[in-house]
Amino acid sequence: MIVVSVQLWSARDGSKTELARMHICNDETGTLALRNYICRVLRGRSTAQLDKLQVQRQGAVKGWPAQRLHVWNLVAMALRNMGYGVGEDE
């Protein structure tokens, strides 16, 4: 499982606040060359809320060439497939 966490690190006092979290899980139906993933964004804007593991959005990435492309491309595709970055107000 890939876990993507967005954190705010304060320049003033050094505190860290988790703002968002996403899980990307290999669904084991793909091949070594082309993998399939289940993607979930968790609900909440703090570590305590995110630790409840309530799914806010979910989606999938199918046929992903994991060996060929950097993981940031997978993260971008997962977010796009869940409706982020397409003009929505969040």
What spatial form do the alpha-carbon principal axes imply? elongated
Radius of gyration: 15 Å
**Alpha-carbon distance between the termini?**
25 Å
Instruction: Briefly note the structural class of the backbone.
Output: alpha+beta
- Strand adjacency order, main sheet: 1-2-3-4
Alpha plus pi helix count: 2
| Overall mean pLDDT | 93
Residues in helix, % = 10-25%
Please tell me about this protein's structure:
- This protein has one domain (2-81).
- It has a 4-stranded antiparallel beta sheet with strand order 1-2-3-4, with helices on one face.
- The mean pLDDT is 93.
- Helices cover 17% and strands 41% of the residues.
- With 90 residues, the chain is an alpha+beta fold.
List the defining traits of the structure above.
alpha+beta; four-stranded antiparallel beta sheet; 90 residues; 17% helix
Please give a quick description of this structure.
17% of the residues lie in helices and 41% in strands.
Topology:
Layout: E1 2-9, E2 16-26, E3 35-42, H1 47-50, E4 55-64, H2 71-81
Antiparallel strand pairs: 1-2, 2-3, 3-4
